Structure formats: C-alpha cells, structure tokens
Amino acid sequence: MLDPLTLFNLNPEVADDAALHGLQLLVGFTGFAEAGHVVSQIRDELLENLEHDVVASFDSDQLIDYRARRPQISFVEDHLADYEPPQLNLYRMYDGLGEPFLFLTGFEPDVQWERFAAAVVHLARTFDVEMMSWIHSIPMPVPHTRPVGVTVHGNRPDLMAGISAWRPQAQIQAAVGHVLELRLTQAGFDVVGHAMHVPHYLAEAEFPPAAVAGLEYLGAAASLVLPTDRLREAGRDVERQIAQQVEASAEVKGVVATLEKRYDEYAESTVRRSLLVKDNDELADAEELGAAVEAYLASPQAEEESEALRPETTADTTEDAETGGNADASGQAGTSEQADTSGPFDQGTGPKN
C-alpha cells in the first residue's frame, strides 16, 4: 500500500488548533446507491447553514475515476467556465448551539479504498475523534406515507437497540463507508451507521423526508443540533406532488396501498424497547432514566408521537402545528401552496459529486 498520508493535505491555519481534538465525526459520501440523494441533501444543508472551515482536503486525482464519473463543466456561448472538480474534504463545523464537530463528506472514492480508510483512521487518531456517525441510504419496498425507517449498525448497542426498522442477514454490495466502519472499529473507535430507508419508487429523485430523518438520527447519536427547517419545507412540497400523482393513477395507488398494508403488518409485530428497563432487564435508576428520557426526546420517534397526540382544533391551528419546528421525521406535515406540474414520479435529480 502507498503511504496513506500522501492522500490528503492539512490546512495549516486550522489543523493545529487544539480545539479540534475529542470531537464527534460525521461522515457521508455521495455517489453509490444514494437512494433519494439523502447524503447530497444533508451535505448541502450543513454546508449552507453552518459555520465551517476545511481541516483537510483529499487528492481527487488519486481517488476518482474521471471517465466513469465525469465532473460537470459549463459551456457559455463560446467558452468554457465553471469547472467543478470533485471534492472530498474534512470540515470543522459548529452546530446550532455552537458546538464544534468534524464532517467528512464528498464523493465516494472509486479506487484505493484501503489506503483511504488508513488515512481516515490516521486523522481520527490525530484528532482523537470521540465517535464516527455515518449516513447512507438504500431503496426499500416501503410506502412514502409512513415514517422513514432506518437500519442502525456499528459497535454501540446503546445507540442501536430498539431503533432499527429492519434487521436482516444478507450479502450486500459494499460502500467505502462500510470499509471505514470496519477499519475504525478495528482501530478501537466507536462507530454507528445509519442506513435510511427510501421508497424504492422514489430512489432516483430527491426525497427530503429521508434527509430530515437522517439529520435527526445523526444529531441524536452525536448530541448535536443540526438544521432541518429548509428540508422540511422541501419535503412538504415533494409529498404534495407525490400525493397528486398517486391520486391520478389507480395503478400507483394500488402499489402504495399494498406497501402500506405490508408495512403496518410488520410494524404491529415490532416490540418497542421500554425506556424504564435497561438492556439486562433491570429497572433503571433515576440518573439512567433521566439520560434515557433526554435521548428519547431528542429522537425522531418522540417528534412523531407528539405530532400524533397533538389535538386538532381548527384547520388553521392544525396547519400552524404542521409547519412548526416539531414536524415528524417522515416530513409529512404541512402542504405547500406553490403549484408544480412535475413531480418525483416524472423525473429525478442526478447524483452530486
């Protein structure tokens, strides 16, 4: 293996800051099997809304196959402009409460996965990373009318128990995030991954509700306050378009109804973990119970249940509640008044590098 330390360059203005040590590390790669373009939406949301600076930049020329995944360039009348080379950077960011964390994001490397993983392990050791929380998305036979599901994996049972909507045993195509999870686990780091479930019939389009749920799960795992307002609004608009197109097609309506039935049957058989009982079935003490309640209140599940229990008075009151900051993780609250003749069933958006 070539020296992994030559894969990246540190930003000398930031990398020597002692405040970089002991932070949470969030990770998300665009490209492979990015159902609903979840990581792309999360990346854009964080970069556009949170204060950040670059800690390290990876060398794209060593990691990407340009002929397999060509970058975008603009042709403006008689000249070329706005060439956008792929980027893979490690950022320092500050959440909504000013708490710093690290965010590794960009294109998924096409080659040299083990060398790349070794470089990330080196950076994790250098900055004494507390835990890596990473996000990806997969197409699933689930309806868009139900809360967004997630499969959680890693080596932190306390952050995984009672959350996964689907716990299979299967051979899957690996992504570089899976390799990172294995190598960081072997290096002694805490790791938790979240595979967001995107309705398979919406996998090629942007599906904001899955991105909202992903941000909430990442925030809960890493104890961070991450922005979701803009994606919630986008999710309401997307769901309005979906509803219109489902209503216009008896065939699509039948498919969604079948998926809803299967989802509900599976959900009824799922046992929810009690906050009052520890993993060894002993009753939790006051301190443990308080910590569990705080974790629950920060979870998407709590928001979903609070929305379901909120009394409906007038139409205006309901609309105000739905458009507030406590919309559920499925992003189904509220509607948009803006009309659009196209929708998720008509076209998707291409992957972003």
From TrEMBL:
Origin: domain of life: Bacteria
Pfam family, one: PAC2
Biased composition (Polar residues): 332-341
Span list, region Disordered: 297-353
InterPro entries (UniProt xref): Proteasome_assmbl_chaperone_2, PSMG2_sf, Rv2714-like
UniProt feature coiled coil, ranges: none
Name under which the protein is recorded: PAC2 family protein
Organism, scientific name: Arthrobacter sunyaminii
